Give the backbone structure.
Amino acid sequence: MQLLLIVNPAASSVTPRIQVLVQRALGEQHDVRVAETTRRNHATRLAEDAVRNGIDGIVVLGGDGTVNEVANGIAGSTCALIPLPGGSTNVFCRTLGLPDDPQDAVAVSLRAVDAGLVQSVGIGSVNGRYFLFHTGVGFDAAVVEQVERQGDLKRYLNHPLFVYAAIKTWLRHYDRSSPAFSIEFEDGRIDDGYFLVCLNTDPYTYLGNRPLNIAPAADLDHGLAAVTLTSLRSDHLLRVVGDALRPPPGLSSSRWVDLRTDLKNATLTARRPIPVQVDGDFIGNATEVVFEHHPDALHLARTDLL
């Protein structure tokens, strides 16, 4: 195969030594070129060029944001996505069952490629931008925005920084005084939403080694799942987090939690501009958010099927 290795040298787990070892492992069986990202959305441009040049697959050594950018550059093509863990959390790689160590992960990924496990999977989109595992509207996006304002610290203090940002956002940076949005689903409507997560896979994220399972029915072979909170009372939110930290089946519907699965689309209308994050990257504020599921849109090395 002709492969392009896209590396984010700023990702928390990426070092020159790791990059050399990954490139060497890939080069034992395949023709490999290397490109490093230098700015936000650079990986998307590199991926689009690779598709035009007939590259068979793109190996991504970076965090979830870099993997998302590459997916946005190759969705709808036959170019395969082969992600490797290079960030601090690596939600998508861990969902695929990849080891945390990039050297171990590249060996697993090559086994999947050799076994013919590059398959078409479904992904989601939010306002036209694809996402691999989830997008958040409201509180968690506001937390991500605060974390990104401390970008230099994220590399070294990832999980403690998120906890600090969550507390700070709760106290000072998110309006919890009234519902923020309504959302129209295929089978109904919610008018008093405070916070929503739309998922393509589960877990939602990890706290250290602990997965937060909120919609285990969400997977690469079915439609999207949506979890909408109609309350942000502290006791309700802590109850949700506690339920998510327990082993699956994850969350269930209640008076303040609405869970829907296998969705094709949904449209959210906000009462005021509301923050949005995609695969852990803050993308701005919006007053309308359109979610869609795209079956078979992405060719992916299915290490989860090994």
